[in-house]
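Hello forum,

I keep getting stuck at the same step: I have a sequence, I want structure tokens, and every attempt I make locally crashes halfway through. Rather than fight my setup again tonight, could one of you with a working pipeline run this one for me? It's a single chain of 250 residues.
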Amino acid sequence: MNRPSRRTQSAAARSAVPGGWWQWRASVPTSRLPLCGRTGSNGQAMIESVFVIIVACLCFFAIFQYANLFASKAVLSHAAARAARSRAVGFNRWMVVKSARVAAIPASGRRLTPASVGVDPAVRAALQRNRVGDIRDLALETDVRSPGTQLEVARVPDYMDSDNDATAEHLLNYELWDALSVDIREPMNVGGLTPGVLTVNLYQRHPLLIALGPLARGELRDVGEDEELALGAFYSIESHYPLYMEDMNW
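Reply #2:
Ran it on my machine without issues. Output:
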């Protein structure tokens, strides 16, 4: 017994449906349609999804970069205020530089001396035992310091007591401390009769995670070693030390 072919059966089915081929195609479930049309639409959807994911990732990295720079700018403003206050009471330039560096630790990158061991063991152990939300709540409720923080806090007084940069470098050092420059501007002391206003300007070069300039021009490329952004901050305050101290220009 000869059975009709699938093409013959399909043609008979199309002719039996009023309205012709379009009504027949609409009545057939999608799962029974030929795979060629569905494969094309799936490929198009995949390509569109890839483009959307790339754009979303670029937007996320750009927002993260700007947030990081904004936080570094706030830290730098705090460091400028600490440096200006140390100069206002008569400390020499080296003490002003040390005050600025210590205040800028949160935005100074990786710790070089003593060498950083990566993720703190206490933090790694807490992540293994608890969820991230629980760790955040615990950090807000307690005043427990990690071993790395305790080491930094213990070395800051010795660093502030150091006599020169060579000695201080062996006590405490950070990745971006060399990129921090301190500029002290104060009026000439005319007999020390009236306090003047001094200004401390801080400048620090920060490496970028993504090349923001080329990205704004529509260019997508890797970040080079020279991709940095100079951040600046200043703080002005009355200088009272000429009223009771003699400036030795140290």
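The longest strand covers residues 196-207. If your local run keeps crashing, start a new thread with the error log.
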